[in-house]
Amino acid sequence: MVQMKQDAGRIRIWRNDAVAEVELLRASGTQHRFPKHFHDTYAIHLHERGTMAFQYGQPQVALKPGNINVLAPGVVHMCLPADEQALNYCCLFVSPAFIQYAVLDPGATHLPLFERLLCLGDIKLFQSLGSAHRYLETDDDAFEAETLLTAGLAALAAYSGERHKRIEAGREPRHVTTVREFLDAKYDRRIALADLARLVGLNPIYLVRSFRSFVGLPPHAYQRQLRLSRARQLLRSGTPPAEVAGMVGFADQSHLSRLFKQTTGVTPADYAKGL
């Protein structure tokens, strides 16, 4: 388990071997501002103190104590304190594989969709997921924690209203899909905007505007998030932080450390220690 001072508060990220497919975060007394980013997992936020401003492609939402916020993998969002008050909250980052194992019937090929920002005020569900998080934090009862977590995930899947709908690629234009797939495959390479424009035969400015409109980030920022996502995977697999920067395409370790801390709240070294 790891902690890091941040604005006189602290942020911890860790995993519990009892539920290895779930990454946990606890923030206490922090005012960390998270820029636009996305996760390769489902992100479940349980808000405990203060007001957090949360934005995802729509008017800003104010998260209050007792609120649950849920995002599907790949959804671009940003979050920051709404005022000067420090925040307390905890998060569960749940892999799609664990969602399928815990919630769906055997052989199912679809996952819960959260096409819109889901912000709930369900106190019983908040308490259940909060208890699961605390058990996984203290190792008090991993069996009960997994039971509570599984029940909570099933309730969230029902809230999504899309449990039985197959996930689709989306309605983005072909040129956006082409660029996104190119960046997915070559996230660790140096890429010029002119190269992307030539790839799809479009004006660079039009391409950036169109890509941002459908993906939520301009191409360079999308590539950066892919690199950070891959960095987390490498750190989880035991790759030393000093080696990760070059493997994912960052110029040096300090560049990775700065962006990693900005996006997760902890440094790569602290993140690795908590796993």
From TrEMBL:
What GO MF annotations does this protein's record show?
A: DNA-binding transcription factor activity; sequence-specific DNA binding
Membrane spanning residue stretches: none
> Which part of the chain is the HTH araC/xylS-type domain?
177-274
Give the top-rank taxon of the lineage listed in the UniProt record for this protein: Bacteria
What residue stretch is flagged as signal peptide? Answer: none
- In its keyword annotation, does this UniProt entry include Transcription? yes
Alphabetized, the UniProt keywords read: DNA-binding, Transcription, Transcription regulation
User: What's the protein here called?
Assistant: AraC family transcriptional regulator
Organism annotation: Rhizobium laguerreae
Q: What is the lineage of its organism?
A: Bacteria, Pseudomonadati, Pseudomonadota, Alphaproteobacteria, Hyphomicrobiales
